[in-house]
Structures are given as structure tokens and as C-alpha cells.
Design goal:
Structural class of chain A: mainly beta
Oligomer: heterodimer
Shape of chain A: globular
Helix content of chain A: under 10%
Shape of chain B: globular
Number of helices of chain A: 0
Radius of gyration of chain B: 14 Å
Distance between the termini of chain B: 35 Å
Order of helices and strands of chain B: EEEEEEEEEEE
Largest sheet of chain A: 6 strands, mixed
Number of helices of chain B: 0
Helix content of chain B: under 10%
Strand content of chain B: over 45%
Number of strands of chain A: 12
Distance between the termini of chain A: 41 Å
Radius of gyration of chain A: 14 Å
């Protein structure tokens, strides 16, 4: 069975600073990896996804993530955060085609300070 | 506007009562999902359905029931057997295309509080 670990429960960064959110996964085959963002009291919005190919994937809102098979990681990055990036971020791993069950990490809450 | 609608946004019920949460989608997706979200625990899958009149249990199905009589609708009933029903409930949908991986789209959620 697959699993996802987000080791940072809460991160605080200054506006304009760079950001990296960590995600480690466990899965026996090639994983399908996702990052979602959730504003308070809202649903989840997909930031980016990795299925295959180029290990550096670009997403919406200036985010990118890099898949590193050797480290079982899929860390999310942004070079310069904006106050509107404050939210909760979830990493998720999916299994096989045709059975799109997702396993989510516990999330990382991002706070932006002026 | 295509999307997923969940109603109501906030729901209050007395302990021991069953309650049904609505989820409707107009994305023409075959698959629909229900997740439960608790602080610090991420999202956990309750039930999912890949086709009308068929559904499977997820990781935490005990105390919940679902139906899938129409493609666009996937209501979730939280029964009195669910020991800790207070949570944020999210519905999602996706295509089911065996040739590609199909991402899930999420609704805005319903916050259920049992008093």
C-alpha cells in the first residue's frame, strides 16, 4: 500500500522569500504524484502533478516540484512567496490507472509574514 | 460553469441522528469520491464509485453509507453508528480513462458538527 509523509506540520516564511515543502512517498512501482492547495474552509485545488517524463514539473501560481526517485521525494518549491500563498498544502500519491484512489499526506500549513 | 457542488456548507445535527450530505457534479465524470478531513490527519477516503449503481469502501467506511443512482450525484449518509462524525467532508470526481491517470477535482466541502 502507498503512503505519504509530509514532515513539516507548519512552516512560516517571509513574503518574497523562497519556499520548499517536503513530501516523501512510499510505493512499490512508479507513483503518480500530486500537490494540492487548500484555503481555509475550502475544497482542494490541484497545483501540479507528476505522471512520467521530465522530473521537474511546473504548476499553477508559480509553483514547481521535482520528483527524485532515489530519495522517494516530490518536494514543492516556489522562488518567491506572496501573502496569498498562505494556505494548507497536501501531497498525494496515486496508484494505478483506472483506480484513481489517492493517499494524502497530513498536510503542511504555510504562514506568510510581511 | 462546470464543477462540483456540495450542500449545505455547514450542517449541525444532534447525536444519534442520521444525516445526508449532498454532492452533485456536472463535469460528466464517471468516478466520484468521498473524503473525510480532520485537523492534522489529511484526507481519508470513505467511499468511491466508478460507475452508476456500484461503489466500494475506502479506508474508513464504517458508520457511513452511499448510493449512486445517477452519474452526477453521490450522496453520503453519516449514520448514528459513526462514533466521531464531526469533521469536514469533501467530495471529488474524476474521469475513468484506462489509458491515462485521471486527476480528481474537489468540491468546496461540508462541515458537519454533531452536538
Amino acid at each position: 500500500a502507498q503512503s505519504v509523509t509530509q514532515p513539516d506540520i507548519h512552516i512560516t516564511v517571509s513574503e518574497g522569500a523562497s519556499l520548499e515543502l517536503r513530501c516523501n512517498y512510499s510505493y512499490g512501482a512508479t507513483p503518480y504524484l500530486f500537490w494540492y492547495v487548500q484555503s481555509p474552509g475550502q475544497g482542494l485545488q490541484l497545483l501540479l502533478k507528476y505522471f512520467s517524463g521530465d522530473t521537474l514539473v511546473q504548476g499553477i501560481k508559480g509553483f514547481e516540484a521535482e520528483f527524485k526517485r532515489s530519495q522517494s521525494s516530490f518536494n514543492l518549491r516556489k522562488p518567491s512567496v506572496h501573502w496569498s500563498d498562505a494556505a494548507e498544502y497536501f501531497c498525494a500519491v496515486g496508484a494505478t490507472f483506472g483506480n484513481e484512489k489517492l493517499t494524502f499526506g497530513t498536510g503542511t500549513r504555510l504562514t506568510i509574514i510581511p | 460553469d462546470g464543477g462540483i457542488t456540495q450542500s449545505p456548507k455547514y450542517l449541525f445535527r444532534k447525536e444519534g441522528q442520521n444525516v445526508t450530505l449532498s454532492c452533485e457534479q456536472n463535469l460528466n465524470h464517471d468516478a466520484m469520491y468521498w473524503y473525510r478531513q480532520d485537523p492534522g490527519q489529511g484526507l481519508r477516503l470513505i467511499y468511491y464509485s466508478q460507475i452508476v449503481n456500484d461503489f466500494q469502501k475506502g479506508d474508513i467506511a464504517e458508520g457511513y453509507s452511499v448510493s449512486r443512482e445517477k452519474k452526477e450525484s453521490f450522496p453520503l449518509t453519516v449514520t448514528s453508528a459513526q462514533k466521531n462524525p464531526t469533521a469536514f467532508y469533501l467530495c471529488a470526481s474524476s474521469n475513468v480513462d484506462r489509458a491515462v491517470y485521471n486527476e480528481q477535482f474537489f468540491g468546496p466541502g461540508t462541515r458537519l458538527t454533531v452536538l
